[in-house]
Each structure stands twice: as structure tokens, then as C-alpha cells.
TrEMBL record:
SUPFAM superfamilies for the chain: Winged helix' DNA-binding domain (SSF46785)
Species of origin: Orenia marismortui
One Pfam family in the UniProt entry: MarR
GO MF annotations in UniProt: DNA binding; DNA-binding transcription factor activity
Record keywords, A-Z: DNA-binding, Transcription, Transcription regulation
Official protein name in the record: MarR family transcriptional regulator
InterPro entries found in the cross-reference section: HTH_MarR-typ, Tscrpt_reg_MarR-type_CS, WH-like_DNA-bd_sf, WH_DNA-bd_sf
Domain HTH marR-type, chain residue ranges per copy: 1-135
Gene3D superfamilies per record: Winged helix-like DNA-binding domain superfamily/Winged helix DNA-binding domain
Amino acid sequence: MKDDHIGRYISIAYRSNVTLLNKKLSNYGIGRGQYPFLIALYKKEGICQKSLCDFYNIDKAAAGRAIKKLVDKGFIIKKTDPNDKRRQLLYLTPKSKDFKKEFIEILKSNEKKMKKDLTEEEIEVFLKVIKKICFNLGVESTSLKEE
């Protein structure tokens, strides 16, 4: 246990999860940088890029690249905010709405694989601990802010 490091296992789990999702989503032209934005927009459309950056703790440039790819592939569109002409709001397209059920099933299958052989108590403890780790690392926002 002396040589076990939390960061190592977080990194391994993250990369394994991303690799599996990439395999499942590559047929749809969605890469690892884009699917978190689809997840957020399925939960709440009409949000701006800054809210997504805050929610995922992602820098503005990386978010901009991911959003551009999703726009180019026809999954999302940008509309000017009627209350602030400088701001663009993001919305799902019919293509992404048609894809939602399949996308959610892919995510659920990954989640199921991660939780295999874990008790509800273990999952609860893990979530409590990982949230503390995020907080310790300076991640303060864990939910989308209202616009």
C-alpha cells in the first residue's frame, strides 16, 4: 500500500473509461472531448460555453474545439442570446435528439461496467471520497449554474 497513489488509480480508471467510450462512440463521429458537452446539453439546453467550462472544469479553448466539432458534425447549433448579443447559447439538433436514447444506453453500459461487483455502500463511499478529492484540488462547482 505504501506505493499506491490515488492519482495513479484515478488516471487509470479515467483512461480506461475514455478508451471504452471512444470505441463505442467512434462510429458516430463523437470523440472523448465532445461527449461531456452532449451529456450536459441533454440535461439542459440553451446554456453558454462558459457554463460548460465551469461545470466540467475545462479551459475555454478546449471547450471551444469540442463545441466546434459538435457543430460541424451537426449535433449542436449556436444561437445568439436574445438578452446578450455577445453570447452564444447551445442547443441540440434533431440529429442529436434522435441519438439521445442510444447515447444514454452507451453511457449506462459503461457505468454498469464500472459499478460491477460494488455494493451500494461502496459506491456511496467512493462518490463521497472522489468529491472531497475534487474539492481539495480546487474544483468548487459540481453542477451547472443557472443562466
